[in-house]
Specification:
By secondary structure, the chain is α/β, with parallel strands linked by helices. The protein is built from 16 helices and eight strands. The protein binds a DNA duplex through α3, α14, β7 and β8.
DNA sequence: TGTCCACTGGAAGGGAGGGCTT
DNA sequence: AAGCCCTCCCTTCCAGTGGACA
């Protein structure tokens, strides 16, 4: 675990979870948010804030940074508490309330169980505890659009109306979203409450990314280990990629790992190039690896069709193959409706390409293509499909 | 211009599995 | 032990649809 990389002083600094002392090119946004949030130090309720910006534009870092500063300015959290929830990690209404509750409730014997209670009960228990001390609670809901997608707006309704029931304390919400349009689908009442203040985080440009990388790399690396063009190269790659600073830092970190493993004393552009490929491949294999076995079987059906000279298949083709191989594998067979749903999930994950297309009289269906060759190799090597080694032959004799 | 295909996509609901409450 | 509740995964049902074809 603690094997030291001779190139790196402090690797933690390159991790996206690290909150630096300075957040370059976000001074304006910090100032805006601080102005809104500052009244909480005198127990006045700040407006709710909605923060919008693409991945890696510093939204989470800025908010966490402000939370840290707020804590410093407020002795023992006497006037306000800062609560952070990531709605992608905790994605059910119960889970969100459970997490908020247990960050507020200090007495462990009174904490909310992670399952078992009705939502109503969690609501009322939470309200009771929030109102116990006269305080401002700032609740940050990161990736708020994820929760809305899955659960609708019940939970936002609760959180934005809770102040009407509270007698002492007040709750302020900071919502963070990648998707600027997500509020369009909210109930108008909730929409206006949630978005009392709106702050936009624009993507970083190449120059700004370079500044960020320079700052961090000075702290993270030993002197002289970065070859001159490396930082601008990482910045340029990530600027193409929607100005994602997280991506840029990942590139640098992985590049340094690769250099270390090769016992190279200098990190070069070649390492970065290699890192880029590695990141992309890792992302895909992680997704494929963690699919449920049914999703894997659907994906396998798409692979088989591709290999059998049917590179653009439709839902019906996939389902036929799916049915057949799940018989061979002796697993349960899902309905076509469900398989169609799994296909559209795979599409959303970016593993396959599926677009709805109409063939006139021949009906309307999805035209499905495999995303990449890597996916094919990954899924074929899955232990689940050992039995299908000679599927091609099987198919010729028994299918249709 | 209307028909009709092969689905899509939404909704409702079931049931298993986790766990609390009485 | 029986009765709840929430979540996840799934089925069933059905209205809706883009566009080739008659």
């Amino acid at each position: 675990m603690d094997k030291r990389n001779p190139l790196v002083k402090n690797k933690r600094i390159l991790q996206s979870s690290y909150i630096p002392e300075q957040l370059p090119h976000r001074e304006e946004q910090i100032k805006e948010i601080v102005e809104i949030v500052a009244p909480s130090l005198t127990k006045d309720k700040p407006s709710n804030i909605l923060i919008i910006g693409k991945t890696g534009t510093g939204k989470t870092a800025v908010v966490k940074y402000i939370g840290k500063e707020l804590k410093k300015a407020d002795d023992n959290e006497e006037n306000c508490s800062f609560i952070y929830i990531n709605c992608e990690v905790v994605d059910t209404p119960y889970g969100i309330l459970y997490n908020i509750g247990n960050q507020i409730i200090k007495d462990e014997t009174k904490s909310i169980p992670f399952t078992g209670w009705s939502l109503d009960r969690v609501f009322s228990e939470l309200t009771k505890y929030v109102d116990k001390e006269n305080k401002i609670y700032i609740i940050v809901l990161d990736e708020i659009d994820r929760s809305f997608q899955k659960n609708g707006d019940d939970i936002f309704y609760f959180l934005t109306t809770i102040n009407e029931v509270l007698e002492q304390s007040k709750v302020s919400i900071i919502g963070i979203s990648n998707n600027p349009k997500f509020t369009d689908f909210l109930d108008p009442k909730i929409k206006s409450r949630l978005g009392e203040e709106k702050i936009i985080f624009p993507p970083y440009n190449t120059v700004q990314l370079e500044d960020i990388l320079k700052d961090r790399s000075e702290e993270a690396f030993e002197k002289g280990v970065l070859s001159p063009g490396v930082i601008s190269y990482c910045a340029a790659l990530s600027a193409q990629d929607m100005g994602d600073a997280r991506r840029a830092l990942d590139l640098l970190r992985i590049a340094s790992d690769i250099a270390e493993r090769n016992n190279d004393s200098i990190i070069t552009e070649a390492h970065v190039k290699y890192a880029k490929n590695k990141i992309e491949l890792d992302a895909v294999s992680e997704v494929v690896r963690t699919l449920t076995s049914q999703s894997k079987t659907v994906l396998m059906s798409i692979v088989i069709n591709t290999e059998n000279d049917n590179p653009t298949m439709n839902t019906g083709d996939v389902f036929a193959t799916y049915k057949h191989i799940s018989e061979i594998l002796e697993t349960s067979t899902l309905t076509q409706r469900r398989v169609a749903g799994l296909i559209s999930e795979l599409d959303m994950m970016g593993i396959i390409h599926a677009r709805v297309k109409s063939f006139g009289r021949a009906g309307r269906t999805r035209e499905i293509e495999l995303g990449s060759k890597e996916v094919m190799d990954l899924i074929k090597s899955d232990v689940l499909f050992k039995k299908l080694k000679n599927y091609k032959n099987v198919k010729q004799t028994t299918l249709i």
